[in-house]
TrEMBL record:
Isomerase in keyword set: yes
Residues the entry annotates as binding substrate: 9-11, 168, 208, 229-230
Keywords: Cytoplasm, Gluconeogenesis, Glycolysis, Isomerase
One Pfam family from the record: TIM
GO BP terms: gluconeogenesis; glyceraldehyde-3-phosphate biosynthetic process; glycerol catabolic process; glycolytic process
PROSITE patterns on file: TIM_1 (PS00171), TIM_2 (PS51440)
Subcellular location: Cytoplasm
Function, as annotated: Involved in the gluconeogenesis. Catalyzes stereospecifically the conversion of dihydroxyacetone phosphate (DHAP) to D-glyceraldehyde-3-phosphate (G3P).
Top-rank lineage group of the source organism: Bacteria
Membrane-crossing residue ranges in chain numbering: none
UniProt pathway annotation: Carbohydrate biosynthesis; gluconeogenesis; Carbohydrate degradation; glycolysis; D-glyceraldehyde 3-phosphate from glycerone phosphate: step 1/1
Protein name per its UniProtKB record: Triosephosphate isomerase
Length: 254
C-alpha cells in the first residue's frame, strides 16, 4: 500500500506575510493528519519562515527547483544543501521550468542525482503537450522523460504526471486517462528499478486538481496523490484535497 502524497506547488505566489497567513490557516487541519503525506512548496523566499512554522508538525516542506552544483557562480540559483537546510523535498523538471527556463531531461537528471545526494526526495515532473497528446505520443514522451531524467538515480523519489494542457487551464485529464498514463510510467519504472521497487514508488497526478474533483483521481488504482497548483493557494481547497485522499486510503484499507 502506497501512502498518498498531496503536494502544493505555490509557484511564484505569496510574499512571506501572505505565506504565513495561508499556512496558519492550514496548520490546525493538517498538522497531525495520518495516512497521507502533505508537502508545501512555497517560493524560495518563504522557505525559512515556513520551515519554522512547520516545526513539530507532520507537514513536509519542499522547494520548487534548485541547481545541481554544490555552490559557485550561478547567479540567482539555490544549491541542494540550501534547500535541504529547510526542506525534505524538491520539485524538479516542472513543465514551466522546461518551457520558460530551458530545462531538459539531462539537467533534470543532474538535479535528481544532486537532490538524492543531499538527502532530498525529488518530485520529478513529466508530461506531454497538447500537440503530443493529440498525436498519440503521450506514452513515448513520458517514457523518454522518465528514462533520461532518472538515468543512474536511486528509487527514493516521487513522480508527478502533469499533462501540460491540463496545468492551470481548468481542463483536467479524466481520471481514467491519467491512470492509464501513470500505469505506463510505472512500467517504465519497473524496467529501471525492477517491478517490486516500482510498485512502491508514488506517482502523482497534477493539472487542475481541486477539492471538487480530487476524489475521482484518488479512486484510481495507480494514482498516489496529487501535485496541486492553483488550489494549493486556498487553505480550504488544499485541506479538502488532503482529507479526500485520506478518505480514499481508509476505503482501500477497509
Ligand atoms: P494547477 O497546477 O493545479 O494550477 O493546474 C499544477 C502544477 O503545475 O503543478
Amino acid at each position: 500500500m502506497r501512502t498518498p502524497i498531496i503536494a502544493g506547488n505555490w509557484k511564484m505566489n505569496k510574499t512571506v506575510s501572505e505565506a504565513r497567513e495561508l499556512v496558519s490557516e492550514m496548520i490546525p487541519f493538517l498538522k497531525d493528519v495520518q495516512g497521507v503525506t502533505t508537502v508545501l512548496c512555497p517560493p524560495a523566499s518563504a522557505l525559512l519562515p515556513i520551515a519554522a512554522m512547520l516545526e513539530g508538525t507532520d507537514i513536509g516542506l519542499g522547494a520548487q527547483n534548485m541547481h545541481w552544483e554544490a555552490n559557485g557562480a550561478y547567479t540567482g540559483e539555490l544549491a541542494p544543501a540550501m534547500v535541504s537546510e529547510f526542506g525534505q523535498y524538491v520539485i524538479l523538471g516542472h513543465s514551466e521550468r522546461r518551457e520558460y527556463f530551458g530545462e531538459t531531461d539531462e539537467t533534470v537528471n543532474k538535479k535528481v542525482h544532486a537532490a538524492q545526494a543531499n538527502g532530498l526526495i525529488p518530485i520529478v515532473c513529466v508530461g506531454e503537450t497538447l500537440e503530443e497528446n493529440e498525436a498519440n505520443q503521450t506514452s513515448a514522451i513520458v517514457s523518454r522523460q522518465i528514462q533520461a531524467g532518472l538515468a543512474g538515480v536511486k528509487s527514493d523519489l516521487v513522480i508527478a504526471y502533469e499533462p501540460i494542457w491540463a496545468i492551470g487551464t481548468g481542463r483536467a485529464a479524466t481520471s481514467e486517462m491519467a491512470n492509464a498514463t501513470i500505469k505506463i510510467i510505472r512500467e517504465v519504472l519497473a524496467d529501471i528499478f525492477g517491478n517490486e521497487v516500482a510498485q512502491g514508488i508514488r506517482i502523482l497526478y497534477g493539472g487542475s486538481v481541486k477539492g471538487s474533483n480530487a476524489a475521482e483521481y484518488f479512486a484510481q488504482s495507480d494514482i498516489d496523490g496529487a501535485l496541486i497548483g492553483g488550489a494549493a493557494l486556498k487553505a480550504d481547497d488544499f485541506v479538502k484535497i488532503v482529507y479526500v485522499s485520506r478518505a480514499e486510503v481508509m476505503k482501500g484499507n477497509s
